[in-house]
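User: Hey, quick favor. My workstation is busy. Could you predict this chain's structure for me?
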Amino acid sequence: MIQAALILGLAIPVMGTVLGSACVFLVGDKMPARAQKAMLGFASGVMVAASVWSLLIPSLDMSEGSVVQATVGFLAGMAFLLLIDMLIPHVHAGEDKPEGVRAHLSRTTMLALAVTIHNLPEGMAVGVVLYGAMTSGMDIPVAAALAMSIGIAIQNIPEGAIVSMPMRAAGNSRKRSFAIGALSGLVEPVGALLVIMLASVMTSMLPYALAFAAGAMLYVVVEELIPEASEHPHSNLSTIGFAAGFVLMMVLDVVLG
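Assistant: No problem, here it is.
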């Protein structure tokens, strides 16, 4: 059962990205602004709720009342994504004319890089929760780990569309746009497996790892998703989307956990 849960936990988030990327076959060449705002807000809500219920709270529970491990792990996750953000060229919210090294890459290419970067902490989060569920004495139910995977898959649907639709608008074929969007999600199972392999030799580090994944995910929300969702008109739709995503992930985690 554990092995089946592991395979499912790794595969489900990728299926969400693939499903979202397939939107390029169903709609026009450009995603409506209203839909994009709602999707960005929804993804933000899912990630915030997952960070709290699936990562930070279990980290604090394992620390037996101490906040040191969760604090150190959380800040390390933030710092890690900040470093990646500085080193890898990609589009930031509201940035239309890249400078420096970014000027050598197209905006759609940088957008794909941005979503791929976003998927890394999500994969890490799935990996660390799956490992906690596979390890006796960690008090993380298998159902809670699968809830995490399902939640990430749900928020991957808009992320897949956010990659494939601009690719199509930039002149790529529908098949190519779909392939690039779908491939952006492959970093998640890779990140998850790396975390599982590392955690298996550092079981005592699991509270740090849970908080680390939470910090990395919340960095993405604060630095990228929320600013972009709040730009220009229709920002109220992103707020509604955030509420829907947050509540859905909270219910999934509480009911299945």
